[in-house]
């Protein structure tokens, strides 16, 4: 057992004191893990749009002070009571959604939407006792997505921790915690493009590029990137995108443009923008008879999906997915193995890297649209 087990750990954390204000590196106290919890030493973390969205806190109930961060790799420091399948020293990826292995969803082969540990952006404390494990001078600091990885140590529910191959480099595979698996899984687990097929990807951000990577790995012949920003196309080629459509270049709906390019429609499409118009286009651009569209992007609260029902009668299928249909504890170790076997390429997602003390730079890179993923090195 580590000498720190059962004790409060003082360490550095990047605290968001107010919405939209730079994070401040503070010395915080991290309480020991309680029932079904583990305390992790985070070695690498990366920044995802979801962190930025909740840090900006426009249109949501603000919850501050808070420690953000949910894509990360680390090592188990100590485990709480009731934890049997993890031990100090295990290499792990914390995940913003969980797998309790006891609820109906976890017992179903078809679902990854755990009743107990499904993503909850409004929860700022641990499920076990409703308290935070972070504090500074006695003031509680809220958790984020049950992970709070912008801290040298964090406490996470055991159901939100995937144990991985200790040979996997944590500074690379940490990006598999969220966005990359979301896009990649949407293609390989849900859209399932046959070899030689055509796939349209709407939105060429990190998730869309991961969806394209899934199409590339599946052996799709035509991967059509759809984005309003033409500067994304050059980068997207590395992910297998070999044709590009900018809806702004046409005076007709993009689904018609794609149907003309592909003799009636693509075999598969994956929507990664969250724009309701893009969702409708993604569905209406698939071929009748066999086409499948998969929605990944998160829509606005008041959006409604409108299409003619004939599109369904003509045997097009519309699906949606959460976290690429991966069960975090069961499936993530296998995704890491895909990387280790050089099937899935992860390095090309990592465009920047900063030390922990420079974490605010990672926010700048993302807000300027410069980075796909920026790794934050916790030990520097
Ligand atoms: Zn994320
Ligand atoms: Zn469950």
From the structure above, extract its key features:
380 residues; 6-stranded parallel sheet; 17 strands; 7-stranded mixed sheet; Quinone Oxidoreductase, Chain A, domain 1; S-(hydroxymethyl)glutathione dehydrogenase [NAD(P)+] activity; oxidoreductase; zinc ion binding; Rossmann fold; metal-binding; 11 helices; EC 1.1.1.1; globular; binds zinc ion; alpha/beta
Counting DSSP E segments of at least 2 residues, the number of strands comes to: 17
Helix fraction?
10-25%
CATH class of the largest domain: Alpha Beta
On the 0 to 100 scale, the average pLDDT is 96
CATH superfamily of the largest domain: Medium-chain alcohol dehydrogenases, catalytic domain
CATH architecture classification name of the largest domain: Alpha-Beta Complex
List the bound ligands: zinc ion
The CATH topology of the largest domain is Quinone Oxidoreductase, Chain A, domain 1
User: What structural category characterises the helix and strand content?
Assistant: alpha/beta
Radius of gyration: 21 Å
Q: How many domain units?
A: 2
Keywords: Cytoplasm, Metal-binding, NAD, Oxidoreductase, Zinc
Protein name: Alcohol dehydrogenase
Family: Belongs to the zinc-containing alcohol dehydrogenase family.
Organism: Ziziphus jujuba var. spinosa
In short:
It comes from Ziziphus jujuba var. spinosa. Homodimer. This protein is an alpha/beta fold.
Describe this structure as you would to a colleague.
The structure is a single chain. The chain has 2 domains: 2-177 and 346-377, Medium-chain alcohol dehydrogenases, catalytic domain (Quinone Oxidoreductase, Chain A, domain 1), CATH 3.90.180; 183-322, Rossmann fold. The relative contact order is 0.15. The chain has 11 helices and 17 strands. Helix 4 crosses helix 5. It has helices at residues 49-56, 104-107, 170-173, 179-191, 206-217, 232-236, 254-261, 276-284, 310-313, 328-340, 359-367, and strands spanning 9-15, 24-30, 37-46, 71-79, 91-94, 134-136, 139-141, 153-157, 161-163, 198-202, 222-226, 243-245, 268-271, 292-295, 317-320, 350-355, 373-377. The mean pLDDT is 96. Helix 11 (359-367) links the parallel strand 16 and strand 17. Bound molecules: zinc ion (2 copies). One zinc ion binds at residues 99-100, 102-103, 105-106, 114-116.
